[in-house]
Amino acid sequence: MMPTRIRSPPPLGDFTPLAEHQSKTPESFFDGKPILYYHAAGAKAWIPKSQRGSGLPFFPADLASDPTGPEGSALNGTADENVEQKVDLFVNSQTFTIFCPAAETGLSIPYPLISIHAIKTIGGTYKSVYLQLELSDDGNGGDDFEVVELTLIPPTSTAKEGEEEGASETTKLFRAISECSNLNPDPADQDDDDDDEDRIIFEGDHQPVEGLESVYVGASDGGLPPPLPGSSGWITAENVHEYFDADGNWIGGEDDGGVSGELGDGAGAVHGRDEEEEAVTGGANGHGAGEEGENKRVRID
Questions:
Q1: pLDDT for the residue 221
Q2: How many domains, the chain?
Q3: Beta partners for 88?
Q4: How many CB atoms sit inside 10 A of residue 143's CB?
Q5: Contacts of residue 129, Cβ cutoff 8 Å, sequence gap at least 6
Q6: Residue after which a domain boundary falls, among 185, 200, 231
Q7: 158 and 63 in one domain?
Q8: pTM
């Protein structure tokens, strides 16, 4: 999952506006055009000077900073720390797309590559959306990633603190990114959850058979693998005589992994109905079973 570099802005006709999508039931939830949650032309985009050339093609390493900005002294000295570009934003249900007309290039970014997004106030006046992007440092799909800090100010934002129009536009951008991020969860996180769910891990000398889940290699002498935790051994046609006699009575084994082979008092005894009644009533007259037996009610058929 890597960002895609683009050389022209995507036509608005390639998207279905969110209002139109919400006004009717789509014929399919899997086909059709991507849903455009937010679009703005001429938004301000800033990154630190030190991050020029690191993943965003419209911020090349040799990009010169504007001597008047970003926004001059209104940002309390940040003009010396950041560089600015004007960009068009397309927040859609598939990717977060940024295009810079001046550089004639842009980037379509999968949402899982946006590790952080938040509303940020700059210089006590400007409302912006702050993003941390995990982009390949060589821009060619390598395995090494570098975090790029991108700040976006919608074109209708204002330097007047608390003005509703600027604040609401920034909120719209933030909410659009949030909703589309929820539509595109990181598949790696889902795979990890599926792999860990309901997994039982056995410890000890249990060598699994490659490619077969919960199947283990047998003993070197051709026998079965060692018993798994919680079991007391394996009973097979070859060793059944060690556990049962010729009449099928359990003879067990002292070293069979936890089963003593000795049954408790009364095990194997068969009681008839008359004996059970005698035990309950303490005899025909209710005596002979102790004080508790005297309180028992005699059964009458």
A1: 63
A2: 3
A3: 99
A4: 6
A5: 117, 118, 119, 120, 151, 152, 153, 170, 173, 174, 177
A6: 185
A7: yes
A8: 0.57
